[in-house]
Amino acid sequence: MYDVIIIGAGPAGITAGLYTQRGNLKTLIIHNGKTSLENANKIENYYGFENGITGKELYFQGIRQAQNIGIDVKNEEVIKIEMIEKSFKVKTTKNEYISKTIIIAMGTKKKTLQIDGVKQFEGRGISYCAICDGFFYRNKDVAVIGNGDYAISEVNDLLPVVNKITILTNGKPAPDIRSEKVEINNRTIKKIFGHEKVEKIEFDDGTDINVNGIFIAQGTADSTDIAKKIGLVLENNKIKVNENMETNIKGIYACGDCIGGILQISKAVNDGMKTGLNVIKFLK
Ligand SMILES: Cc1cc2nc3c(=O)[nH]c(=O)nc-3n(C[C@H](O)[C@H](O)[C@H](O)COP(=O)(O)OP(=O)(O)OC[C@H]3O[C@@H](n4cnc5c(N)ncnc54)[C@H](O)[C@@H]3O)c2cc1C
After folding, report:
1. What's the confidence (pLDDT) of residue 123?
2. ipTM over 0.85
3. Closest Cα to atom 3, ligand 1: which residue?
4. Could you tell me the distance, in angstroms and rounded to a whole number, from the CA of residue 35 to the centre of ligand 1?
């Protein structure tokens, strides 16, 4: 059992970890290697680098710094956090880990899917969380857009509830899943139709299918996906925390870009420091 699991190895997560590990808490950092920093070609406004530094270099230096003081760092994709008696279970595509506390430092939400109709039908047949909204589609036909491990995890949450699931890979390779309730459709999606709610998906080749709901699970789970599944309160699509960086669930903290505010490294580092210190206070 870990004292703290930090999801995210960007400036917020690593800084939180530096404090918790040095505060004698058994710390695990899990990351999937995808960070805002990878797109930052040169960072010149962060303290201590006289010639600037690339985002990628900064990211991996941070990870090595954490490992150098004994923090466990795993490169795995987190798909879910679950509450178990007085602790939390973090599920990745490979493993499960148990911890007394969790720090979410997963960066900003990924971009929404650019398909005609997605924005229009959000909350009216388009969902981003199977465990939250699956019940609304019991015994109905739904589609899941995505082809990776996160999409499969969403399909598995829907299987006991819905009648039929069509996995829409949107032109990408098909995932490996076998169930008589699941069909795979590799066509490229053109448009989502409906009146009050989602009714139909049309493909580039002119064919279409009727569905009652669509779950978007493209790529990996982001901070809001993870937050919604466990019942964290969001505000403007960011995780809501109080002045101690606590979410509405005792023992779960959040910091960095995923809580909003100024999306800069210095702010993420400051958040991480505050979060690490507050977790130490909470557990001691
Ligand atoms: C193009 C660009 C240029 C920028 N330039 C600057 C700059 O010059 N100066 C500046 O101060 N800021 C800059 N920024 C902003 C800066 O990169 C962010 O503010 C900062 O990285 C936020 O840190 P963070 O730790 O909150 O999140 P991130 O650095 O985004 O880290 C998120 C972490 O969460 C992990 N993660 C996410 N989802 C999962 C999952 N499902 N499973 C496991 N791990 C997961 C990722 O692997 C990553 O480790 C720039 C951003 C961009 C996009």
Report:
1. 84
2. yes
3. 40
4. 4
- Is residue 77 a part of any domain in this protein? yes
Residue 220 alpha carbon, nearest atom of ligand 1: 41
Tell me the per-residue pLDDT of 114-144, one tens digit each, with 9 for 90 and over: 899 998 998 899 998 898 889 999 999 999 9
DSSP E strand stretches across 8-117: 27-31, 72-75, 78-84, 87-92, 96-104
Instruction: Name which residue sits closest to atom 37 of ligand 1, judged by CA.
Output: 106
Nearest C-alpha neighbor of 149 from the set 208, 221, 213: 221
Question: Interior CA angle at 172 toward 171 and 176, to 5°?
Answer: 125
Mean pLDDT (whole number) for 76-88: 94
Residue 111 has pLDDT above 70, yes or no: no
Q: How many domains does the chain have?
A: 2
Identify the CATH number of the domain in which residue 142 sits. Answer: 3.50.50.60
- Please name the residue whose Cα sits nearest to atom 4 of ligand 1: 40
pLDDT in tens, 9-52: 999 999 999 999 999 999 999 999 888 888 888 899 999 999 99
Question: 216, 249, 272 — which closes off a domain?
Answer: 216
Domain hosting 30: range is 2-110+221-283
Ligand 1: nearest atom to the Cα of 55: 17
Residue whose CA lies nearest to ligand 1 atom number 29: 10
Instruction: Give the mutation target among 18, 30, 35 for probing the ligand 1 site: most ligand atoms within 8 A of CB.
Output: 35
Angle at 218 between CA 214 and CA 220, to 5 degrees: 130
Protein residue closest via CA to atom 7 of ligand 1: 43
Domain assignment of residue 115, yes or no: no
